[in-house]
Specification:
The protein contains seven helices and 13 strands. By secondary structure, it is an alpha/beta fold. The longest helix has 19 residues.
Length: about 300
Amino acid sequence: MSEEMMKQGVLVRGFGGFYVAVDDAGTEHILRCKKKFRRMHISPLVGDNLLFTPGEGEEHGWVEEILPRRSECLRPPVANVSLLVVVICPSPEPDLLLVDRLLVRARLQGMKTAIVVNKCDLDETLVEDIRRQYAGADCPVLAASAKQKNGLDDLRALMTGESCCCLTGQSGVGKSTLLNALLGLELETGEISEKIQRGKNTTRHAQMLIHDGIRVLDTAGFSLLELDAKMEPDKLRECYPEFAEHEGCCRFTPCMHDREPGCSVTAAVDAGEIDAGRVERYRLLLADVRETWKQRYN
């Protein structure tokens, strides 16, 4: 088919080897992927910008080209995210080590980040604690309650104008419920398991939702995330904006801010300028990155 017949669109969801793309006019097209992508070891991801030839009648169309990606995540498998919104809530208890892993991965890919404390009506103190811990992290912290419909205007304003937003976090934090309240949708939601205090994962596959000028990815929740095995240990501290003003101020250069004598970051923690828990979690991640780096050729 000639280039004049091709269209450009964004991949919004996939199912059973088929892909659904939306063109500039808002029309959905069902597509298949050509074998050349398999030979190239490339798979389309939700969020991909595509060139495709539309189908005719009941026939599906074909993905012709996957345009260059701005960013790429493997878990959840999505592309071209410009704003990563990490959702937490009072129950299940926030896994802040997971939050920090997500923020690191986002910064490595050039994404902006934000944290939303959902279900804030259950614990009004949590959002202030999170704001304190992430002060200086260049990551706004918003309070919201999907049930009470509080904080939605602030979240909507944050997401408007972004090329693609992604809500992510643990299962059961209310990502789909939040999107329902925010965009007036009816996504399937789940309850918290009383026995293990974990969410039931109702979102099984990533999909892009386009509504009122907002493009947002609804993704499955998860509780584990590994950092990139190719990441050099000394790159980790660059993902912590609150460390920036201390670079070059430590006794030793370079300083990994891992309890070295004369470390300016440690002094800032002792002075209450940087949250101790945030730095302790950084050091846990640093140990993880160092071990992974040592094992990279095994």
